[in-house]
Amino acid sequence: MTPVIEVKHLFRHFGDIKAVDDLSFTVFPGQVYGFLGQNGAGKSTTIRMLLTLIQQGSGSIEIFGMDLKKHRSEILRQTGAMIERPDLYKYLTAKDNLRIFATLSGIKITATEIKEQLERVGLADRADSKVKTFSQGMKQRLGIAVALVHDPKLVILDEPTNGLDPQGIADMRKLIIHLRRDLGKTVFVSSHLLNEIELIADSVLIINKGKKVAEGNKDALLNPAKTMVELITDNAGNAYALLKQSSWAENLVNHQNDIITLELDKSRVPELNRSLVEKGINVRSLRPKHSLEDYFLSLTGH
Amino acid sequence: MWQLFQLEVYKIFRRPRTYIAFAVIAFIILLIQIGLKFGGKEYVGIVMSGLNETFEAPTDQVLNGYFVCYLTLNLLLIHIPILVALIAGDMISGEASMGTLRLIVAKPVSRTKLLLIKFSASCFYTLILLIWVAIFALLLSVMLFGTNDLLVAKVSGSNIISSADVLWRYFAAFIFAGIGLITVAALSFMFSAFADNSIGPIVATVCVIIVFTILTQMQIPFYDETVKPYLFTTHMLGWKGFFYVKGVEGVTIDGSIENFPAIVKSGLILLVYSALFVFVAIWYFRKKNILS
Predict the structure, then answer these.
(1) Most buried by CB count within 10 Å: which residue of B31, B73, B201, B251?
(2) pTM, two decimal places
(3) Interface confidence (ipTM) of the complex
């Protein structure tokens, strides 16, 4: 299967700052690919390179099996994007905005098609309203309609839930799932909101300071053979000292704020509990850290 | 390409700020016309008393639509560039400040093509603005004041152009003024490619025009050969050349132009400047990282 996006050893420096540092990843057709990282991790720089907004440093970017530098127009004709805020022509109507971006994408769009596109994002009744009268959520939805106006195979969304209220976030999530499931699009979505990515993505790439720290199937990342376990007891100092002298010493990761963290095979969690109780330690909580957020934080050292 | 050009023009004319220039021009020209309608004879009297020659034409014949138009263009063509900069200076930087630049650059249109389309739309706006000036300054003046021979005062002496010989001169002068204003649009457009907000390019253009115009109009011999020939503002005044007529023993020759090669030279210099400004804009923008 030809990957939709294949990035190999991509670098981008701004002066002395390494914005993207030897980044490689592969996105396959039909995936919702989550691109995770904290603010300033290099997500937007990478996305802007994918869209030719920023000049590519060393390394290669292939999209639809074509080199981005050599086949820019062909690639962008099949790519739709919403980059950060959905900034559109505020003094024009929703209909006008769609018409402008359709023409820029090289297609002629009829009034019926414009209506259909706006219906898809729930804005059909506001087709003739100027964008400046729209709420943030409506602008975000129109931004998605603009990204999809030329029926692209690949949709790139940079922080699509930024500035949205909980309902808006839920709507955006449904829309992304709809794009993949019902329309067969490949969606490359960046976010610093881990729980959002956790809910929609099939595969995840985590970057920190421009470098890849993890990539793979979301479930595999969330359910590794070994997991971090947080232990809370009624006397953390004693518990830590006892564990350090026992066979569990090699599993100890750290001891902070009365919470002891161990890394161990998940199947050994009951054994750890028994061992502590036998040593007279009252266990208040023994919690495997299994969310993507926990995983992300452990990888990025926060 | 044609569709994209139409869209750019549509975007320009859907913005309220576009109409500021049209309103300002109409307002200023109407003010001049009202002033001359009610106090024109005194004004013409002052003008004629300042001339060395004596003319047989009575004051009320001198004050006609062609004269009013000539006077208006003299007053206005220095300032219209500022109104051109309002739009041309916003063509790229305005998109950057709105956040739409990243969306249009991520579309399958090359950056060179995008800039050429945007510059063409700026030129179209400039020419529409000039037609607006022509309608108010020439057509309305002729309607209000009628037509007659045109008195043109210049440093080396004045001449009267017969009314039958005037209209084509205005037509040519407006075409030349169009070339001059396109040069200003190109300058402003170039600044726009460098900036991410609209104010910078507009202010920069206005500053360049003010400084260059002052240098052009300064009567200091040192600048006459060292600086003035290289300023585009000097050549923008070339439109006046169409109203400087050859004469024999004080009688002007219909259809003649005193120094046509100088007009052609100025026109070509303005076109070269325009091309240079657009080239620099494209050269820079092709490499520009879109971070807005």
Answers:
(1) B201
(2) 0.84
(3) 0.83
